[in-house]
Amino acid sequence: MLRPKPVPVTVADIRKNCSQCHLLELCLPFGMTETEINRLEQLIESRRRVLRNKPLYRCGDPFEAIYAIRTGSFKTDVLLEDGRQQVTGFHMAGEILGLDGIGTERHTCNAIAMEDSEVCVIEYRQLETLAREVEGLQHQFHKVMSREIVRDHGVMMLLGSMRAEERLAAFLLNLSHRLSIRGFSSAEFHLRMTRNEIGSYLGLKLETVSRAFSRLQEEGLILVQQKHVKILDLASLQKLVHPLTRHQSGE
Amino acid sequence: MLRPKPVPVTVADIRKNCSQCHLLELCLPFGMTETEINRLEQLIESRRRVLRNKPLYRCGDPFEAIYAIRTGSFKTDVLLEDGRQQVTGFHMAGEILGLDGIGTERHTCNAIAMEDSEVCVIEYRQLETLAREVEGLQHQFHKVMSREIVRDHGVMMLLGSMRAEERLAAFLLNLSHRLSIRGFSSAEFHLRMTRNEIGSYLGLKLETVSRAFSRLQEEGLILVQQKHVKILDLASLQKLVHPLTRHQSGE
DNA sequence: CATATTCGTTGATGCGCATCAAGCACGCTT
DNA sequence: AAGCGTGCTTGATGCGCATCAACGAATATG
């Protein structure tokens, strides 16, 4: 409801923004030259803190900026009239939020912080202007959008053709991969989202998610304790997902 | 397997390309000024015919161009190792294909013509160059990508939370809408895809699709005869989809 | 025009997951 | 430390859809 106001940042802070950010290679500036990055830095006017469970933006909000996650993590979801939610994605540091708003000039989903987080605010009109001058920025921005499309196709395949246990395995492998890229352990991590949110994302009910966790544990592939997950047998998890030989119910 | 070679087009033809194309408002040039469109036209080097069931591009192909559908229609799919396919989208005149390739510089799915079709080939590097000069093109291109993302989110919601009959209703309404925009009847049309392809797209088996068709017909909402569909009760169809009050199995 | 092949419909059966329900393990508040 | 709310687990039951199977309709092939 109440939005935290953007936190003004000093010029010195801003200058440090991208080139010294350890997320450089995961974020928008990836692949840009140093001088290109310097120009992008100047465009990032402010950062914004978002407290846990608070929205960065909401469905229907006018679209004005995209956001690069500096710290923390977000979920994006759509609320249905009956109050139920459908989670469309989980997002972590370095990823870009808000791309959904460009087409309609309004945001089409809610972006909610899953923990106290901080984002870089990139005013969209300015980004377009700069992208016309800085080829590397333009190209990288297009890549970010394209990858989002491909990612969504992956989720569609998951929802369309995998069984509960396989969906969860795919989800865990995806998390594991993204965490390891960011320098965290790929084998052991803490889930920031509830079973309900995982279920919503995977097209399952929370009880089914819980059972799938237990099942993977019984099979010795993972170790779960509430939100703590430890991956014991990566290869088997991957085999479970990748062949995609099995579809839908058994067989 | 064998790809039809690009069909060279005379300069005169090209000149007529966009500004005289009746798809103008559905395609990339939408929202651009006349002079902007003229510059875009010059960039479209060739058209390409694709015969029914032939690929426009294949998964793994190096990414070089995006394609605007002039006539005909396409499906995009991913083939799994066991030979089964997962359809990620159906595409008709005016829509843009190939955006998935930007991120990895390779196509990540197959685009197969569902009937003899023709596309405008838009070489991607040239498009980027021109987008840096022509603001309207840049903006429109971003919008097209953003809408693709939003569209995919819609499919994710459909796959994650709707029952077979609702999925099919949503699918039919979506087709109907897109056809009416293109000047075709929104109430009566011919399906270009098989039950199997519809099922693959909707995360259902072909038998279930067939039953859902029959069910909607029994309820008096539509009239089906093989690939011919007539919508009898639009409002009820929409009610079936929109509330999204019911989820997954019954309740 | 006859035959083969693909595609569609419909019925019978079983499995996977949603649903309903109860109890347990947390973190929060006072 | 007690009390509460929220989130997680696990069991019992039923429904929706996949699966298997057979037949019919439409299109392609020679």
What does this structure look like?
The structure is a homodimer of 251-residue chains. By secondary structure, chain A is of the alpha+beta class. The first copy, chain A, folds into two domains: 11-136, Sandwich (Jelly Rolls); 162-247, Orthogonal Bundle (Arc Repressor Mutant, subunit A), CATH 1.10.10. Chain A has eight helices and eleven strands. Chain A has helices spanning 11-16, 34-43, 124-133, 135-161, 164-181, 195-202, 206-218, 234-241; strands spanning 46-50, 55-57, 65-71, 73-79, 85-92, 96-97, 110-113, 117-123, 188-190, 222-225, 228-231. In chain A, the strands form three sheets. Chain A has a four-stranded antiparallel sheet. The first copy, chain A, has a four-stranded antiparallel sheet with strand order 2-7-4-5. In chain A, helix 5 crosses helix 7 and helix 6 (195-202) packs across helix 7. Chain A starts with 10 loop residues before the first helix and ends in a 10-residue tail after the last helix. The structure holds a DNA duplex (30 and 30 nucleotides).
